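INFO  loader      accepted 1 record
INFO  loader      residues=371
INFO  predictor   begin
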Amino acid sequence: MLKTLTSDDFARLFVNDVPMIDLRAPVEFAQGSFPSASSLPLMSDDERAAVGTCYKQDGQEAAITLGHKLVSGEIKEARLHAWNAFIEQHPEGVLYCFRGGLRSRTTQQWIYENSAVDYPRVDGGYKALRRFLLDSTERLVDKMNFVVLSGRSGTGKTRLLKQIPHSIDLEGLANHRGSAFGPTTTPQPSQINFENGVAIALLKAEAAGYTTLIVEDESRNVGSLHVPVVLNLKMNQSPMVMLEVPDEDRVGITVQEYAEDIHLEYCRQFGEYQGLQKLEKHLIDSLTKLHKRLGGVRFSRMLQMMKGATKQLALQRNYDGFAPVFGELLLDYYDPMYDYQISDKQERIYFRGSRDEVLAHLLEPAIAGRD
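INFO  predictor   done
INFO  writer      dumping C-alpha coordinates
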Protein backbone atom coordinates (compact mmCIF):
# COMPACT_ATOMS: atom_id res chain seq x y z
CA MET A 1 0.00 0.00 0.00
CA LEU A 2 1.30 3.46 -0.90
CA LYS A 3 2.18 5.93 1.85
CA THR A 4 -0.56 7.93 3.55
CA LEU A 5 -0.03 10.72 6.07
CA THR A 6 -2.55 11.10 8.88
CA SER A 7 -3.44 13.97 11.21
CA ASP A 8 -0.52 13.00 13.44
CA ASP A 9 1.77 14.37 10.70
CA PHE A 10 -0.09 17.63 10.00
CA ALA A 11 1.73 19.87 12.47
CA ARG A 12 5.10 18.75 11.09
CA LEU A 13 3.99 19.57 7.54
CA PHE A 14 3.21 23.16 8.43
CA VAL A 15 5.96 23.85 10.97
CA ASN A 16 8.61 22.61 8.53
CA ASP A 17 7.04 24.19 5.43
CA VAL A 18 6.96 20.81 3.71
CA PRO A 19 6.40 21.28 -0.05
CA MET A 20 2.96 20.12 -1.19
CA ILE A 21 1.40 19.26 -4.54
CA ASP A 22 -2.14 20.63 -4.63
CA LEU A 23 -4.04 18.46 -7.13
CA ARG A 24 -7.28 20.43 -7.00
CA ALA A 25 -8.39 22.47 -9.98
CA PRO A 26 -6.97 26.01 -10.30
CA VAL A 27 -10.26 27.60 -9.22
CA GLU A 28 -10.16 25.61 -5.97
CA PHE A 29 -6.52 26.56 -5.36
CA ALA A 30 -7.31 30.25 -5.87
CA GLN A 31 -9.99 30.16 -3.20
CA GLY A 32 -7.56 28.95 -0.58
CA SER A 33 -4.44 26.88 -0.15
CA PHE A 34 -1.26 26.72 1.96
CA PRO A 35 2.00 28.71 1.77
CA SER A 36 4.15 25.71 0.84
CA ALA A 37 1.68 24.30 -1.72
CA SER A 38 2.07 24.47 -5.50
CA SER A 39 -0.86 24.15 -7.87
CA LEU A 40 -0.23 21.13 -10.09
CA PRO A 41 -3.81 20.01 -10.81
CA LEU A 42 -4.92 16.61 -11.97
CA MET A 43 -7.71 18.30 -13.95
CA SER A 44 -8.25 21.77 -15.36
CA ASP A 45 -11.27 23.83 -14.29
CA ASP A 46 -13.18 22.79 -17.44
CA GLU A 47 -12.28 19.12 -17.03
CA ARG A 48 -13.33 19.16 -13.39
CA ALA A 49 -16.63 20.83 -14.28
CA ALA A 50 -17.33 18.25 -17.00
CA VAL A 51 -16.62 15.36 -14.61
CA GLY A 52 -18.81 16.94 -11.94
CA THR A 53 -21.71 17.30 -14.35
CA CYS A 54 -21.29 13.71 -15.48
CA TYR A 55 -21.29 12.53 -11.86
CA LYS A 56 -24.59 14.30 -11.17
CA GLN A 57 -26.26 13.00 -14.32
CA ASP A 58 -24.79 9.51 -14.78
CA GLY A 59 -23.14 8.51 -11.51
CA GLN A 60 -19.67 7.86 -10.17
CA GLU A 61 -18.56 5.13 -12.55
CA ALA A 62 -19.35 7.22 -15.62
CA ALA A 63 -17.59 10.23 -14.07
CA ILE A 64 -14.44 8.19 -13.39
CA THR A 65 -14.45 6.88 -16.96
CA LEU A 66 -14.79 10.43 -18.30
CA GLY A 67 -11.99 11.66 -16.04
CA HIS A 68 -9.59 9.01 -17.34
CA LYS A 69 -10.60 9.87 -20.90
CA LEU A 70 -10.02 13.60 -20.41
CA VAL A 71 -6.66 13.12 -18.66
CA SER A 72 -4.97 10.68 -21.01
CA GLY A 73 -2.34 10.59 -23.74
CA GLU A 74 -0.25 13.74 -24.06
CA ILE A 75 -2.22 15.55 -21.37
CA LYS A 76 -1.49 12.82 -18.85
CA GLU A 77 2.16 12.71 -19.86
CA ALA A 78 2.53 16.49 -19.44
CA ARG A 79 1.01 16.38 -15.96
CA LEU A 80 3.18 13.42 -14.97
CA HIS A 81 6.20 15.36 -16.17
CA ALA A 82 5.24 18.33 -13.98
CA TRP A 83 4.64 16.11 -10.93
CA ASN A 84 7.91 14.23 -11.41
CA ALA A 85 9.85 17.48 -11.80
CA PHE A 86 8.36 18.73 -8.53
CA ILE A 87 9.14 15.45 -6.77
CA GLU A 88 12.72 15.50 -8.01
CA GLN A 89 13.13 18.99 -6.58
CA HIS A 90 11.17 18.23 -3.39
CA PRO A 91 11.57 14.53 -2.53
CA GLU A 92 10.39 15.22 1.05
CA GLY A 93 7.03 16.61 -0.10
CA VAL A 94 3.46 15.32 -0.15
CA LEU A 95 0.37 15.52 -2.36
CA TYR A 96 -3.30 16.06 -1.68
CA CYS A 97 -6.66 16.68 -3.36
CA PHE A 98 -9.80 18.06 -1.74
CA ARG A 99 -10.83 15.11 0.46
CA GLY A 100 -7.84 12.84 -0.01
CA GLY A 101 -9.91 10.59 -2.24
CA LEU A 102 -9.93 9.56 -5.87
CA ARG A 103 -7.88 12.39 -7.35
CA SER A 104 -4.95 11.99 -4.98
CA ARG A 105 -5.06 8.18 -4.98
CA THR A 106 -5.11 8.13 -8.78
CA THR A 107 -2.23 10.60 -9.05
CA GLN A 108 -0.20 8.77 -6.42
CA GLN A 109 -0.66 5.50 -8.30
CA TRP A 110 0.25 7.06 -11.67
CA ILE A 111 3.42 8.56 -10.19
CA TYR A 112 4.42 5.21 -8.71
CA GLU A 113 3.76 3.37 -11.95
CA ASN A 114 5.71 5.96 -13.95
CA SER A 115 8.72 6.50 -11.67
CA ALA A 116 8.53 3.91 -8.85
CA VAL A 117 8.39 6.80 -6.36
CA ASP A 118 5.99 6.33 -3.45
CA TYR A 119 5.06 9.96 -2.87
CA PRO A 120 2.94 10.34 0.29
CA ARG A 121 -0.74 11.27 0.06
CA VAL A 122 -2.49 13.30 2.78
CA ASP A 123 -5.38 11.40 4.30
CA GLY A 124 -8.45 13.63 4.20
CA GLY A 125 -6.76 16.01 1.78
CA TYR A 126 -7.14 19.78 1.81
CA LYS A 127 -10.34 19.61 3.85
CA ALA A 128 -8.60 17.78 6.70
CA LEU A 129 -5.58 20.09 6.61
CA ARG A 130 -7.80 23.16 6.67
CA ARG A 131 -9.83 21.77 9.59
CA PHE A 132 -6.58 21.07 11.45
CA LEU A 133 -5.47 24.69 11.03
CA LEU A 134 -8.81 26.10 12.19
CA ASP A 135 -8.75 23.84 15.25
CA SER A 136 -5.10 24.78 15.91
CA THR A 137 -5.97 28.48 15.96
CA GLU A 138 -8.69 27.85 18.55
CA ARG A 139 -6.40 25.67 20.67
CA LEU A 140 -3.31 27.87 20.56
CA VAL A 141 -5.06 31.21 21.08
CA ASP A 142 -6.63 29.71 24.20
CA LYS A 143 -3.32 28.19 25.31
CA MET A 144 -0.98 31.15 24.76
CA ASN A 145 -0.62 34.56 26.36
CA PHE A 146 -0.59 37.70 24.22
CA VAL A 147 0.85 41.18 24.64
CA VAL A 148 -0.52 43.87 22.33
CA LEU A 149 1.95 46.44 20.98
CA SER A 150 0.15 49.76 20.57
CA GLY A 151 1.08 53.32 19.66
CA ARG A 152 0.00 56.15 17.42
CA SER A 153 0.21 55.84 13.64
CA GLY A 154 3.75 56.21 12.33
CA THR A 155 5.56 54.97 15.43
CA GLY A 156 7.04 52.03 13.50
CA LYS A 157 5.26 49.27 15.39
CA THR A 158 5.64 46.79 12.55
CA ARG A 159 9.36 47.56 12.27
CA LEU A 160 9.80 46.85 15.95
CA LEU A 161 7.68 43.71 15.75
CA LYS A 162 10.04 42.27 13.13
CA GLN A 163 12.85 42.39 15.71
CA ILE A 164 10.91 40.19 18.15
CA PRO A 165 11.10 36.42 17.47
CA HIS A 166 8.03 35.66 19.61
CA SER A 167 5.65 37.78 17.53
CA ILE A 168 3.03 37.42 14.83
CA ASP A 169 2.91 40.08 12.12
CA LEU A 170 -0.79 40.18 11.22
CA GLU A 171 -0.26 43.04 8.78
CA GLY A 172 2.47 41.09 7.03
CA LEU A 173 0.24 38.03 6.76
CA ALA A 174 -2.60 40.21 5.47
CA ASN A 175 -0.29 42.14 3.09
CA HIS A 176 -1.79 45.41 4.32
CA ARG A 177 -0.68 48.11 6.77
CA GLY A 178 -4.12 48.47 8.30
CA SER A 179 -5.16 52.02 7.34
CA ALA A 180 -6.55 53.93 4.37
CA PHE A 181 -2.96 54.10 3.11
CA GLY A 182 -2.38 50.45 4.01
CA PRO A 183 -2.57 48.68 0.62
CA THR A 184 0.74 47.49 -0.80
CA THR A 185 1.69 47.11 -4.45
CA THR A 186 0.27 43.57 -4.56
CA PRO A 187 -3.18 42.18 -3.68
CA GLN A 188 -4.15 40.85 -0.29
CA PRO A 189 -4.44 37.07 0.09
CA SER A 190 -7.83 35.40 0.27
CA GLN A 191 -9.50 35.26 3.68
CA ILE A 192 -8.82 31.52 3.81
CA ASN A 193 -5.12 31.98 3.05
CA PHE A 194 -4.86 34.70 5.70
CA GLU A 195 -6.45 32.43 8.31
CA ASN A 196 -4.16 29.59 7.27
CA GLY A 197 -1.15 31.87 7.62
CA VAL A 198 -2.18 32.91 11.13
CA ALA A 199 -2.63 29.29 12.20
CA ILE A 200 0.75 28.27 10.79
CA ALA A 201 2.45 31.17 12.59
CA LEU A 202 0.86 29.98 15.84
CA LEU A 203 2.00 26.41 15.23
CA LYS A 204 5.57 27.58 14.58
CA ALA A 205 5.52 29.64 17.77
CA GLU A 206 4.36 26.59 19.72
CA ALA A 207 7.08 24.45 18.15
CA ALA A 208 9.68 27.06 19.15
CA GLY A 209 8.47 26.80 22.74
CA TYR A 210 6.98 30.29 23.12
CA THR A 211 4.13 30.75 25.57
CA THR A 212 3.64 34.51 25.03
CA LEU A 213 3.29 36.21 21.66
CA ILE A 214 3.50 39.89 20.74
CA VAL A 215 0.95 41.21 18.25
CA GLU A 216 0.32 44.70 16.92
CA ASP A 217 -2.80 46.54 18.04
CA GLU A 218 -5.21 45.88 15.16
CA SER A 219 -8.89 46.43 14.61
CA ARG A 220 -11.20 43.59 13.65
CA ASN A 221 -10.18 44.07 10.01
CA VAL A 222 -6.81 44.40 8.32
CA GLY A 223 -7.73 45.87 4.98
CA SER A 224 -10.47 43.66 3.57
CA LEU A 225 -9.53 40.69 5.75
CA HIS A 226 -10.97 39.72 9.13
CA VAL A 227 -8.77 38.74 12.05
CA PRO A 228 -9.96 35.33 13.31
CA VAL A 229 -12.69 35.97 15.87
CA VAL A 230 -11.05 33.97 18.65
CA LEU A 231 -7.77 35.87 18.20
CA ASN A 232 -9.49 39.25 18.01
CA LEU A 233 -11.32 38.54 21.28
CA LYS A 234 -8.09 37.46 22.99
CA MET A 235 -6.27 40.57 21.77
CA ASN A 236 -9.04 42.78 23.14
CA GLN A 237 -8.50 41.27 26.60
CA SER A 238 -4.69 41.18 26.63
CA PRO A 239 -2.22 43.56 28.33
CA MET A 240 -0.79 46.35 26.21
CA VAL A 241 2.59 48.02 25.73
CA MET A 242 2.62 51.61 24.43
CA LEU A 243 5.31 52.68 21.96
CA GLU A 244 6.00 56.42 22.17
CA VAL A 245 7.91 58.16 19.37
CA PRO A 246 8.47 61.91 18.70
CA ASP A 247 6.15 63.40 16.09
CA GLU A 248 9.04 64.33 13.80
CA ASP A 249 10.20 60.71 13.72
CA ARG A 250 6.65 59.53 13.09
CA VAL A 251 6.34 61.77 10.04
CA GLY A 252 9.66 60.48 8.69
CA ILE A 253 8.64 56.86 9.20
CA THR A 254 5.29 57.46 7.49
CA VAL A 255 6.90 59.17 4.49
CA GLN A 256 9.33 56.30 4.09
CA GLU A 257 6.76 53.52 4.45
CA TYR A 258 3.81 55.05 2.60
CA ALA A 259 5.65 57.00 -0.11
CA GLU A 260 9.28 55.96 -0.55
CA ASP A 261 8.95 52.20 -0.01
CA ILE A 262 5.80 51.99 -2.15
CA HIS A 263 7.41 54.08 -4.91
CA LEU A 264 10.56 51.97 -5.02
CA GLU A 265 8.53 48.77 -5.14
CA TYR A 266 6.40 50.10 -8.02
CA CYS A 267 9.58 51.12 -9.87
CA ARG A 268 11.01 47.65 -9.34
CA GLN A 269 7.88 46.05 -10.79
CA PHE A 270 7.01 48.48 -13.59
CA GLY A 271 9.99 50.75 -14.26
CA GLU A 272 10.65 54.34 -13.23
CA TYR A 273 8.04 56.12 -15.38
CA GLN A 274 5.11 53.83 -14.59
CA GLY A 275 6.30 53.51 -11.01
CA LEU A 276 5.77 57.23 -10.39
CA GLN A 277 2.36 57.17 -12.07
CA LYS A 278 1.26 54.20 -10.00
CA LEU A 279 2.51 55.84 -6.79
CA GLU A 280 0.45 58.96 -7.48
CA LYS A 281 -2.67 56.91 -8.20
CA HIS A 282 -2.05 54.79 -5.11
CA LEU A 283 -1.76 57.84 -2.84
CA ILE A 284 -4.72 59.66 -4.38
CA ASP A 285 -6.90 56.55 -4.10
CA SER A 286 -5.87 56.18 -0.45
CA LEU A 287 -6.56 59.83 0.35
CA THR A 288 -9.92 59.64 -1.43
CA LYS A 289 -11.06 57.01 1.07
CA LEU A 290 -10.93 59.78 3.70
CA HIS A 291 -12.82 62.34 1.58
CA LYS A 292 -16.00 62.40 3.67
CA ARG A 293 -14.20 62.45 7.01
CA LEU A 294 -11.80 65.19 5.94
CA GLY A 295 -14.51 67.33 4.39
CA GLY A 296 -14.57 68.69 0.86
CA VAL A 297 -12.43 71.81 1.34
CA ARG A 298 -9.74 70.09 3.39
CA PHE A 299 -9.68 67.09 1.09
CA SER A 300 -9.21 69.28 -2.01
CA ARG A 301 -6.32 71.12 -0.37
CA MET A 302 -4.60 67.93 0.73
CA LEU A 303 -5.15 66.40 -2.68
CA GLN A 304 -3.23 69.28 -4.25
CA MET A 305 -0.50 68.84 -1.64
CA MET A 306 -0.21 65.16 -2.53
CA LYS A 307 -0.02 65.90 -6.26
CA GLY A 308 2.56 68.61 -5.60
CA ALA A 309 4.68 66.17 -3.58
CA THR A 310 4.58 63.67 -6.42
CA LYS A 311 5.64 66.37 -8.90
CA GLN A 312 8.49 67.36 -6.58
CA LEU A 313 9.59 63.73 -6.45
CA ALA A 314 9.66 63.61 -10.26
CA LEU A 315 11.64 66.84 -10.59
CA GLN A 316 13.93 66.85 -7.56
CA ARG A 317 14.18 63.12 -6.78
CA ASN A 318 13.30 63.52 -3.10
CA TYR A 319 10.34 62.73 -0.87
CA ASP A 320 10.40 65.94 1.18
CA GLY A 321 7.12 67.17 -0.28
CA PHE A 322 5.21 64.33 1.34
CA ALA A 323 6.12 65.36 4.90
CA PRO A 324 3.56 68.22 5.20
CA VAL A 325 0.61 66.19 3.94
CA PHE A 326 1.42 63.07 5.97
CA GLY A 327 2.24 65.23 8.98
CA GLU A 328 -1.18 66.87 8.82
CA LEU A 329 -2.90 63.51 8.43
CA LEU A 330 -1.05 62.08 11.42
CA LEU A 331 -1.45 64.99 13.83
CA ASP A 332 -4.88 66.30 12.87
CA TYR A 333 -6.71 63.20 11.65
CA TYR A 334 -5.23 59.94 12.92
CA ASP A 335 -4.06 61.14 16.36
CA PRO A 336 -7.46 62.36 17.61
CA MET A 337 -9.08 59.16 16.35
CA TYR A 338 -6.42 57.02 18.04
CA ASP A 339 -6.63 58.97 21.31
CA TYR A 340 -10.38 58.41 21.41
CA GLN A 341 -10.03 54.69 20.77
CA ILE A 342 -7.24 54.18 23.30
CA SER A 343 -9.12 56.05 26.02
CA ASP A 344 -11.14 52.90 26.77
CA LYS A 345 -8.01 50.74 27.01
CA GLN A 346 -5.94 52.69 29.54
CA GLU A 347 -6.31 50.07 32.27
CA ARG A 348 -4.70 47.46 30.01
CA ILE A 349 -1.53 49.53 29.37
CA TYR A 350 1.17 48.36 31.77
CA PHE A 351 4.35 49.66 30.07
CA ARG A 352 5.26 52.77 28.06
CA GLY A 353 8.52 53.72 26.46
CA SER A 354 10.70 54.66 23.54
CA ARG A 355 11.54 52.27 20.75
CA ASP A 356 14.66 50.97 22.53
CA GLU A 357 12.89 50.72 25.89
CA VAL A 358 9.89 48.85 24.48
CA LEU A 359 12.08 46.51 22.46
CA ALA A 360 14.26 45.70 25.48
CA HIS A 361 11.15 45.04 27.57
CA LEU A 362 9.51 42.76 25.02
CA LEU A 363 12.74 40.80 24.52
CA GLU A 364 13.03 39.98 28.22
CA PRO A 365 12.95 36.19 28.77
CA ALA A 366 10.03 36.58 31.15
CA ILE A 367 7.98 38.12 28.36
CA ALA A 368 8.81 35.48 25.75
CA GLY A 369 8.04 32.77 28.29
CA ARG A 370 9.94 30.21 26.28
CA ASP A 371 9.53 26.65 27.50
